[in-house]
């Protein structure tokens, strides 16, 4: 019940010397091989209802660019495909991980050298250049030979499956390089936007509901969207980092107001894991109406960390919920200001 999409090749050489055949070969094996393998087995796994797992083989080159253009491009693609696949398979019987190893004791270089000669149009180093780079190829082979024992790597993969670990980073010594890449992203963003004047004159809008009758004031930089028909939403507005929903349902006969946060946490299990209730308390609206406030942290589709503020009241046999979500770095007081603007008519 475990699928390992593990085939891999590489084509090296200056970018200007590489042909489309080089790209087709490497992307065809490294990226499309993963897609083809998943396409063949995924439906069978889902239909089996048994516990299954898919391991996609990427590389540290899927997180930081390396010298081989086709190789690193294909491995970045495997990471992106795996992230999408993990979200698509969330809350099913199929788990997903992507392994991003460093050097491992394999025969990769010799295998690629042999296979590339069978591929028409794939770039081959001319004899003089081959002799020139021979020491570099020997260095690569030495790095691989001194790399991680495949049996140890297999044990790490098994541990990842048993603990539902998505990113299998077998060589933690590369973490500074991964962090440096994201530091560069942040630095470039700040440079690009450092002289821009951000207008903070955010006004407010009022959402008015007729049955049951209530008002809610929210910032006018939130964009209103159609309510999700899969839920009990009656209102939905959002911007990057803040999603506001209002839900109205019939109040369950036996439900108490103090049960609402736990109920919401249970409902989140459909789309999230690692759900943690940070706070759960009785409170009041400005007009004295009893309410319940809950703050929950979780991982949406098992990957993205979010923070949720939920404010619930019971009114006219209806359960009214103001549900605001954003990243874990969001200021919860901003969320509270929106939620506590709820006003019954």
From TrEMBL:
Gene3D superfamilies referenced in this protein's UniProt entry, alphabetically: NAD(P)-binding Rossmann-like Domain (3.40.50.720)
InterPro entries, sorted: NAD(P)-bd_dom_sf (IPR036291), Sc_DH/Rdtase_CS (IPR020904), SDR_fam (IPR002347)
Signal peptide start and end residues: none
GO molecular function, one term: oxidoreductase activity
UniProt keyword terms in alphabetical order: Oxidoreductase
CDD domains noted in UniProt: SDR_c
Record family assignment: Belongs to the short-chain dehydrogenases/reductases (SDR) family.
Protein's name in the database: SDR family NAD(P)-dependent oxidoreductase
